[in-house]
Amino acid sequence: MVELNPRNFQDRAPAAPADLPAMPRMAPRPAEHLKIGEVVEIAGSSSQVLLDASRLATLTDHNDPSVSMAGQVGSQVKIRMGSRWLVANVRTQRMHQREAGLIVCQIDFLGEGEEEKLTGRIFNFRRGVTRYPVPGTPLFAMTSADLKQVYAADSRPHIEIGTVYPTADTRGALYVDALLGKHFALLGSTGTGKSTAAALILHRICDMMPDGHIVMIDPHGEYSTAFSENGALFDVGNLAMPYWLMNFEEHCEVFLTSSGADRQTDAEILAKCLLSARMKSKAAINASRVTVDTPIPYMLSDLVANIQNEMGKLDKATSSAPFLRIKGKIEEMKADPRYTFMFSGMLVGDNMVDFIARIFRMPAEGKPISIIDVSGVPSDITSTVVAVLSRMVFDFAIWSRKDKITPVLLVCEEAHRYIPSDRVLEHSAVRNVLSRIAKEGRKYGVSLGLITQRPSDLSEGVLSQCGTIIAMRLNNDRDQAHVRSAMPEGARGFLDSIPALRNRECIICGEGVSIPIRVAFDDLAEARRPASDDPLFSSLWCERGGEMEMVSRVVSRWRNQGNQSGQR
């Protein structure tokens, strides 16, 4: 390693020989007073530099917040290469073992820009490095003006979501086409402001593109209040999702209760009876080919009758037990009022066109986002409901290729529930369709947005397909390691600061930004925030009065499944 002498940082003119007149000292270049160290080791991505601790100490009181943070972990530094500036991020720090006053740092190169001759500032910044410096090259602190040029959004369509750290006024932007075209993931522990951040991003997208098509799966009923003005709200009271939209795999998840060899037998019976029921529909007459997956209306009574008839045949290969299991489950769901939103006799009509237009916001009519509140859906079929909605998005995109492409954004809150890792769940209809969207969706104009507090429980393959990662504070070591493996190499220095992020702060890297950035999200108006605030025990437990009346109302809604009528 090349050792650095702190005295080398002093800008001194060389002494003139005695027999020659003294030459006037050249004026230093604009950035010379911000020299803080030099390069000592170069590698392809991560390199090593030495910083002068005394120089850093003199800059801590600088009126520019970016300069005052020079050399700190997570800050940026710049290196002059001819007429260009290389920009790097400080990842680690440690004291020099033998030389007092020197700090050894690891840096990750982010990109390069041209130097403005008069001021020394950076402009025309772009990701990637074409020429690397050699050991001994001076290192300089970045100014807020530099960072504004580095992080400034170019002419591509973008939304501004917050302020770039450590500046006071540099705006952090997301490029919409890159963000949505290659999927994105928003990750953060509970209580970090994840739901508010999701609402902020979606509001900015809706404001920019009021004729968009966004479908959001809301498992807790948090977002209905946030999008009451610019979104269409659906729950078990008005979703009216026809049961016949399910494909065969989804039918099996709902109607089959057996496992092992018995499940295979039950599936064969259901497939035969379901196909026969679909064939009785008027819509089947005009269809060139009908399968168990074809979304053609059929009557549940026809399905039950087919099962009854098959059970009565003398030449059936099995006992009556499989037929009775399936028939009993279907009749149970028909009679249970909790499933009315899906298995009502009123949903037998062929309203597929109206359902798709209503859920996918076609036309948007100023409300480009559909909030699908599944908090009132019985837990045993929640995954199936999400699977049907997700598959409808994907199948619609596939079959609409011959028409004008109409991109749709599908956002899944609590995504680890539906796309768990292999060690949690190997197979389910919703996992299969969301995994396929992650891998193939961008080809057909389907974008996927994943929001989760447990990235380690999320499928590794799906997270790796997300082109943009928005990471808020993560407290769990396993979650941090999972995110680190999904992020690009150049974001390492930013990743190390994830456990130290404040609420409503995030690290963004990937396709949606020019280079990795740390951003403090903007404040969101009260009316646009999701209902995700934690209860204040110190306040609520000091209130008294009206408890009996409240309990009575809750029990009434509980018994009557109040969500069916839209009550809350």
Automatic annotation (TrEMBL):
Biased composition (Low complexity): 11-25
InterPro entries: HerA-like, HerA_central, P-loop_NTPase
Top-level lineage group: Bacteria
Pfam families named among the record's database cross-references: DUF87 (PF01935)
Gene3D superfamilies: P-loop containing nucleotide triphosphate hydrolases
Sequence segments annotated as region (Disordered): 1-25
Domain Helicase HerA central residues, every copy: 159-393
SUPFAM superfamilies, alphabetized: P-loop containing nucleoside triphosphate hydrolases (SSF52540)
Xref: PANTHER family: HELICASE MJ1565-RELATED (PTHR42957)
Protein name stated in the entry: ATPase
Taxonomic source organism: Blastomonas fulva
